[in-house]
Write a structure and sequence with these properties.
The chain is an alpha+beta fold. The chain contains 3 helices and 11 strands; from the N terminus they run H-E-E-E-E-E-H-E-E-E-H-E-E-E. It has a single domain, classed as Ferric Hydroxamate Uptake Protein, Chain A, domain 1. The strands form 3 sheets. A 6-stranded mixed beta sheet has the order 3-5-4-11-9-10, with helices on one face. The N and C termini lie far apart (about 55 Å).
Length: about 140
């Protein structure tokens, strides 16, 4: 019985590690690890995520998507709701903020400057640095 339980546990661990046969793209449960390179494609950009405590995760995104939003949605590292202004991003790299409930939101930056366009309307610029920062 002990061998059978050990065998089942080993199988479960293997399935979890390989994502049930899916290719590991550097994202686990919507979270990219610091220093990871995620996705595939001809264009590449750096993504920084700064949480409400100042913790920072930086990763590289490779993509063929036309917009930063599409690239990040494709990798599962952002989620939100459609609005009349575009995608209202509520979750970034596994962290959910909602202005209506906690007074915080995800601010979007392009090369260190506050973005004048939403993430889903911002074209991918090869080599650019994009950031989401938790702000009040």
């Amino acid at each position: 019985m002990k061998k059978m339980v050990t065998g089942v546990l080993a199988l479960v661990m293997v399935l979890v590690m390989v994502g049930c046969g899916q290719k590991d793209n550097g994202v686990v449960n919507g979270v990219a690890k610091d220093g990871a390179t995620i996705g595939e494609g001809a264009k590449s950009f750096t993504m920084e995520v700064v949480d409400k405590d100042g913790g920072k995760v930086t990763f590289t995104v490779k993509t063929d998507a036309d917009t930063v939003g599409k690239a990040l949605l494709d990798q599962g590292v952002i989620a939100g709701e459609d609005s009349s202004y575009g995608l209202y991003v509520k979750t970034v790299n596994g962290i959910t903020l909602d202005y209506d409930t906690d007074g915080m939101y995800w601010a979007f930056y392009i090369n260190g400057e506050y973005a004048q366009t939403g993430v889903d309307a911002t074209g991918v610029e090869d080599g650019a640095v994009y950031a989401f920062r938790a702000e009040k």
